Amino acid sequence: MEGDCLSCMKYLMFLFNFFIFLGGACLLGLGIWVIVDPTGFREIVAANPLLFTGAYIMLAMGAMLFLLGFLGCCGAIRENKCLLLFFFMFILLIFLAELSAAILAFIFRENLTREFFTKELKKHYQRNNDTDVFSSTWNSVMITFACCGVNGPEDFEDIRHVPYSSLEKSTPEACCQRELQSREGMFVNKEACLEGIERFQNRQGCYTVILNSFETYVYLAGALAIGVLAIELFAMIFAMCLFRGIQ
């Protein structure tokens, strides 16, 4: 009976580690996509140190889970106590790091509100000054997502960091409609847009557009994170039980 239980635990351990292996592969692929994505998202990530660091952390975590899933599978099948102990310690460290990151994200969630972004935009945005990282990042966001400001073009009415021409009102050219949503895309009618004719402007705020675009992925990422934490917890339990059961 004890041998059958140990054998069952070994194959369950292999199964859980196989899922960790797949989860690590997904995170690794997602991290690589964020860094090399050619559609404009890479510019946004590179311009923001926090996002840039987060992308590489995700890449490193994916690679580590990928490796540990592989080691866990080998340790379970071969019943190697050293590999199992090594696997348990590293999974425990990763589990604690992920739990800490989730707690910090919950604590600092107020920094992702509409009011926070609006305040930062009005304080730091310098219109077409591409030498300024903040302004260049916002211009990339508005061009890529065909949006304007946080809430809409009205966000720019009180911004006076850089003077604009007599034709140009408060709306920056990044809010003007383009035939192709990229920096190389031709304007539909730039002069009319800058004069304030609404049908040539992107009127929807970026906060709503981005929230709608990523809402499904946020829930998916949250569900995936909970699933990964649960799998890691069970994998640690099985690893320790298998470690103690091996003679």
Structure explained in plain terms:
The protein is an all-alpha fold. The protein folds into two domains: 1-111 and 222-245, no CATH class; 117-204, no CATH class. Helix content is 68%, strand content 0%. It contains eight helices and no strands. The protein has helices at residues 2-36, 41-47, 49-78, 81-107, 114-124, 133-144, 190-194, 206-245. α2 (41-47) packs antiparallel against α6, α3 runs antiparallel to α4 and α4 packs antiparallel against α8. It is elongated and about 80 Å long. It starts with a helix and ends with a helix.
Quick description:
The protein has helices at residues 2-36, 41-47, 49-78, 81-107, 114-124, 133-144, 190-194, 206-245.
Strand content: under 5%
Runs with pLDDT <50, length 5+? 161-168
Count the DSSP helices: 8
Helix amount: 55-70%
- N-C termini distance: 15 Å
Domains, number: 2
Largest sheet composition: none
SSE class = mainly alpha
The global form is elongated
Element-level helix/strand string:
HHHHHHHH
| Mean pLDDT figure | 76
Please report the total strand number as a whole number.
0
> What is the rounded Rg?
25 Å
